[in-house]
Structure formats: C-alpha cells, structure tokens
C-alpha cells in the first residue's frame, strides 16, 4: 500500500510479470488506474530500448486467445483476469527493411523474435532457407565451428525448427562451417536481410475459432 498526498488517498500497488523474448522475466509495478503505457515504458527502460515503436505487450485471455495490450487504456480492465498478471514483450511491427534499424539492441530483439517465429512454426520456410537461417542462428550462439568442440551430431539438441531431422541438421552444420569469422552482430544483420525476403515474414497467424 502507498499513501499519496495530503488528502490521505491510499493507492494500491499492483504487479505484473513481463515475459521477454528470451523467456526471462521482469516484474513491473503499477497503480490500479495505470494505462498500459506505464508498464510498456518500464519494460523498454529495463531493456535499454529507444526504438520502441516496433514493440508491444501481449496478453492471453481466459479463452487462450492472444491480444495486443492497448497502451492508451487501463491495463487491468483490458486483462479481465485476476492477479498475478502476465504480459509478453514481443515485436508488434516488423520493419520491411531491418537494415534501417538504428540501434543494435533493437536489431537483436527483432532477431530473437524471428528465431521464435521459426521455432514455433509461425514463419514457414523452405528446407534451403531453414538451413541458411539455421547456420546464422548457430554461428550467433555457438561462435565459429570448431571440430574439437563440434563433433558429428552436435546440433541434435539444438532446436531451430519444430520438426528437426538429421538431414537438416547436417545442412545447418555445413553452413555453420562456412560462417566462421562472423560476429553475433554480423550474423543478426545477415540473418534479417535474408528473412525480410520471405513471404511469411512479419505475418502473425491466428487460429480460427
């Protein structure tokens, strides 16, 4: 409880969890009458994000349907649920040309979002596209290919797509070898340059009722 001003008005603090793109969580504090913008701004501050326009907060209703939080409306009234409140920090607007992104941290979060889209089957790709993109993902996370560390089958527990098989893993490993020397920042730039050409890039599928 927090007492505000000389009028003795008592305001109750509320809390919500924000699940980030890497599945880590932060906790935000807000008032009952707060708009969604308050929590969104707290999330962006925590992530050092200045280019906020690409992002938004999502919530899941009691029917398991996903909705974007309206930042100009009362947060609690939109959620229509009881605490604890959980929101999901996600990319809302996919830039047509990721190369125009100014901040490296913004590009990184877009990269992570698209990785999630591929992993969860929302971004459909051909075999060759998956192999190319998978190579960048592996280079970004594991660094240069090293035969001492990366033995045959080293990608068997590294998830890139929902239904991964040995043929795809072998092709990703082959591409990984050819990307030696690329920094994580380079990987993210080249990955996004390829992704933007895909037909389903930025498409947000919704299940039919």
UniProtKB/TrEMBL annotation:
An annotated GO BP: actomyosin structure organization
SUPFAM superfamilies referenced in this protein's UniProt entry, alphabetically: Second domain of FERM, Ubiquitin-like
GO cellular component: cytoskeleton
Any Pfam family matching the protein: FERM_N
Family annotation (PROSITE patterns): FERM_1 (PS00660), FERM_3 (PS50057)
Family matches, as InterPro entries: Band_41_domain, FERM/acyl-CoA-bd_prot_sf, FERM_2, FERM_central, FERM_CS, FERM_domain, FERM_N, Ubiquitin-like_domsf
Full protein name: FERM domain-containing 5-like
